[in-house]
Design brief:
By secondary structure, this protein is an alpha/beta fold. Helices cover about 65% and strands about 10% of the residues.
Length: about 600
């Protein structure tokens, strides 16, 4: 008995969640543009009345009136009123459709803005979680179209309710037995519709997951980023094999769900076409021609409308389960939009007035799901105006340190202090605005060169002068100057066939120009010259240190020539600081830094005496 009560409670909870989720989506539409929903609601009510008048009542009234000898004038006046209503309805529908076409992009923009704003706020760790990323993809892939679907489903409920009540009342006045036939498909829907929709949902979700793998493989064959490796190595075979694996997995999904979906489709078709439609024709013909207890108009209405009402009732069941299906999709959307950001903006928190000192005290950090810390017991101090070098082999934890300094992550243990105060106590945007950063895995956007350098829009003539100077310092302006629109030329050919294409070294120089153009107090460079040769690297560092005169600079490198310019060097290995000091002090220690330096001596022989 207890188990039965729990099962009933779960069903109620599911339906409550279903209506709550669909209401949530309607709420987004109302917030974006209330007129869209209001006009659609009015249109649904007027449309249902119009459908009843023209598709059902008109035939019964006309045929019965003629059979019973009603005056032709009265018949024509009544029919004229019906047609007049229909004309006015069609005019209203046309106006509301035009309004919808004009305003629905506003709804799309509102929902996409919500998603994009949230995507810019969620923790970086979220995008490193495959489960969260899958939720994000599912949420964004059809967020706007799902809003449209929810609205249509709700309007279908209104339209069907009015139509069924009106036609059902008419049929009951003729003979209640026909209503029993009309509601048989609904019984079928209620019994197995939810299971059918769950199977459809599982089928679609499994397909989306496999499609993401398939689409990735497709991209590797046509994107420029993969073009060289795909042509010069046998990676195309690996991708080709993975494509076949994805297609094979899709086939397995069809094998698993296809026959079940086919069975349910046959079941519903049988209930509707054989039981309802054929049964109503036989019964109505008998009552008209044999029993002679209904009029010809009534017979016509029954034959014409019984399938209509059965279809509507059956579709009503479908709509309710579509609402349940919508809810499953909206769950993904809400899981993303309602994700509680761990590192969030607090507008009531104090802003950073100035920078004096940055301290890392006993800081340890572990990536989620990993047992070995990426950084362990780090103690490090950066004073205003200092040039700090972070060196070590790949995988030593250097880039992770940079992300923690900018509060893209929070330490697992220990703390980071700014001017003696934990950085968690400052307003996030104010703290991050201290930093101007060039990451090792920098990206250029498919926008103009100027927007890529300033990392914002609304570029003014004054900004263009700043961009030109920054590009000159980065050693890339000569190339940009040759472009058709100069700094206003588009980067990449994603949306512009004449877009500028840059080599790896050239693209890196554009990313470095961001440092020269922006005015942050702390400059962070994470392997900023990895695509440059040693000579170009030294020239770039000279330019950067000249441009950053008086600023605090933290730069990461596994090439040690740049470390000669630093006030202090920290050498990392396996997530720990193993040596620290000036370049000269570390050489005299004859430890791992010195060993690494001497191994690179042939590259840096010409620059060993370089100073800041």
């Amino acid at each position: 008995m207890k188990k039965g009560k729990e099962k009933t409670k779960n069903k109620r909870t599911n339906w409550k969640r279903t209506f709550n989720n669909n209401g949530y989506m309607l709420g987004l539409i109302i917030k974006a543009c209330p007129g869209v929903l209001i006009l659609y609601l009015i249109s649904a009510v007027l449309g249902a009345v119009n459908s009843f008048l023209l598709n059902t009542y008109l035939y019964q009234y006309a045929l019965n009136a003629l059979q019973e000898g009603e005056a032709l004038k009265n018949i024509l006046i009544t029919l004229g009123c019906m047609f007049g209503y229909s004309v006015l309805y069609m005019l209203f529908r046309s106006i509301s459709s035009c309004y919808f076409e004009l305003k629905y992009p506003k709804v799309e923009a509102y929902i996409q803005n919500l998603l994009q704003k949230k995507a810019s706020e969620v923790d970086l760790a979220c995008f490193e979680s495959s489960a969260f990323y899958d939720t994000y993809v599912k949420a964004t892939s059809e967020a706007t179209s799902r809003a449209y679907t929810v609205m249509n489903n709700i309007l279908d409920v209104i339209w069907i309710t009015i139509n069924v009540v009106a036609v059902g009342t008419l049929i009951i006045t003729i003979d209640p037995i026909f209503i029993v036939l009309a509601f048989l498909p609904l019984l079928c829907t209620l019994l197995v519709g939810k299971k059918r929709n769950r199977i459809r949902y599982d089928y679609n979700m499994r397909n989306k997951e496999v499609a993401r793998q398939r689409d990735y493989v497709r991209r590797t064959f046509y994107l420029r980023d993969f073009s060289k490796e795909m042509r010069l190595t046998e990676m195309w075979k690996v991708m080709y094999k993975r494509m076949h694996s994805s297609i094979s997995e899709m086939k397995d999904i069809v094998d698993k769900y296809g026959y079940k979906i086919m069975f349910f489709r046959y079941l519903f078709d049988f209930a509707f076409d054989v039981v309802v439609y054929s049964g109503s024709i036989i019964l109505a013909a008998y009552k008209t021609m044999v029993a002679k207890n209904i009029l010809i108009g009534d017979c016509f209405v029954v034959i014409h409308s019984i399938s209509n009402i059965a279809s509507s009732v059956n579709y009503m069941g479908d709509v309710f389960f579509k609402l349940d299906e919508n809810s499953l999709y909206v769950d993904n959307l809400r899981a993303f939009l309602e994700y509680e950001v761990r590192i969030a903006e607090d507008e009531n928190a104090p802003t950073v007035s100035s920078f004096e000192k940055l301290e890392l005290k006993n800081m340890t950090f572990e990536y989620e799901g990993q047992k070995t810390p990426a950084l362990s017991n780090i103690n490090l101090t950066v004073n205003v105006g200092e040039k700090i070098a972070i060196v070590g082999h790949n995988g030593a934890g250097k880039t992770t340190l940079i992300k923690l300094l900018q509060r893209l992550y929070d330490p697992s243990e220990g703390e980071i202090l700014l001017n003696g105060e934990n950085i968690k106590n400052y307003r996030l945007s104010s703290y991050r605005n201290l930093f101007g950063t060039v990451f090792q895995d920098y990206r250029l956007f498919a926008t103009t060169v100027a927007e890529n350098v300033m990392l914002r829009g609304d570029i003014t003539d004054e900004d263009r002068a700043v961009v030109k100077d920054a590009l000159e310092r980065a050693g890339i302006y000569r190339k940009v100057e040759t472009l058709s629109n100069g700094v206003d030329s588009n980067v990449t050919r994603e949306f512009d066939n004449k877009g500028a294409m840059f080599s790896g070294g050239e693209a890196q120089k554009i990313s470095i120009a961001r440092i020269f153009a922006r005015k942050q107090e702390i400059v962070i460079m994470d392997e900023p010259t990895s695509a440059l040769d040693p000579i170009a690297e030294q020239e770039m560092y000279r330019n950067m240190f000249e441009a950053c005169e008086g600023k605090t600079v933290i730069f990461v490198s596994h090439r040690l020539s740049s470390a000669t310019m630093a006030d202090r060097v920290y050498m990392f290995e396996n997530g720990k600081i193993i040596e620290q000091g000036t370049h000269s002090e570390l050489l005299s220690m004859n430890g791992k830094y010195a060993d690494m330096w001497h191994k690179q001596a042939d590259i840096y022989a010409d620059v060993e005496e370089v100073t800041v």
